[in-house]
Amino acid sequence: MVPPKKTHLFDDGQKAPLKDAKRFNAKTTRTNGGDMAMETVIGLEIHAQLKTKTKLFCSCAISPGAEPNTLICEVCTGQPGALPRMNAKALELATKAGLALGCSINHRSLFSRKNYFYPDLPNGFQTSQLDPPICSGGGLEISAPQGSKRVRLNRIHLEDDAGKCVHDERRGKTLVDLNRAGTPLIEIVTEPDLSSSQEAMEFMKKLHSLLVFLEVTEGRLEEGEFRCDVNISLRPQGETKLGVRGEIKNLNSFRHVGQAIEYEIKRQSALYAKGEPVLQETLHFDPVRQETRALRSKEEAHDYRYFPQPDLPPVEVSPAEEEKIRLSLPASVEETTARLLGLGLREELTTLLLDRKGALDFFDRTLALFPEPKKIGALMEEFLLPASLAQNAPLSSSPFQPENLAQLAKLLDEGTLGRRAVQEIFAELYETGQDAEALAKSKGLLQVSDMGALAAMAAEVIAAHPEEAAKYRSGQEKILGFLVGQVMRRSRGAADPKGVGQALIAALNRTE
Ligand code: ADP
Ligand code: MG
Ligand code: ZN
Question: Is the pTM value of this prediction over 0.70?
Answer without folding.
Answer: yes
